[in-house]
Amino acid sequence: MDQNTDIIQADQYLTFILDKETYAIEIVKVREVIDYAYVTRVPRMPAYMCGVINLRGSVVPVIDLRLILGMSAVEKTIETCIIIAEVTMEDDMLHVGMLADSVQEVIDVDPNQIDPPPRMGSRLDTGFIKGMGKRDDRFFIILNIDKVLTGDEIAAIQHVRNARSNTAAPPSAVDTALRAPSPP
User: What's this model's pTM, rounded to 2 decimal places?
Assistant: First the structure.
C-alpha cells in the first residue's frame, strides 16, 4: 500500500479576531506575530495607516485591518497584536503589519471544509475573500491577503515605507522614538 494515499491534505491558517468575528490567513503568508507596541504615526496618511514600527532595523508599515474591511478602528487592549504578513503586489513582496483584536491559533483545515466566497452580486467585490472555512458549526472568513489591499493602498504603504527608510535621523534616534511609551 502506498503511504501517500493515507495522507490527508490540510492547509494551515492563522486565525484571529476582528470585531468579534474570526478571520484567517494562510500561515505561509505570516512572518510573525508581535505584541502591540508603539507605532510611529506618519503625517498625511489615510486613516487605515497607523504608521510604522521598527522590526529589527526594518521599517514595517502597520495598517488597521478593521478599517480596511469597513469596520470601526481597532480598540487597543492587552490582546491587540500585530500580524507581520508578506503581501505580494505586482511581483513585489512587502512586509506589512496588520492590527488584530487578538490572535487565536494556527489550525489545520482540510480543503473540503472550505466553501467558495459568497456571491453578493456584481457590485460588491469579494475577491479579497479566499473562502469560508467551517469549524465547530461556525464559519470563519479566509482572507486572500494579497487582494485585501487595493493598488492605491499598497502605493500608500510603499510610500510610507520608503519615506521612513530614507529619513536622515540616525538609527539610534529612530529606535529611541519607537521605544517611547504610547501617549494616553
Answer: 0.78
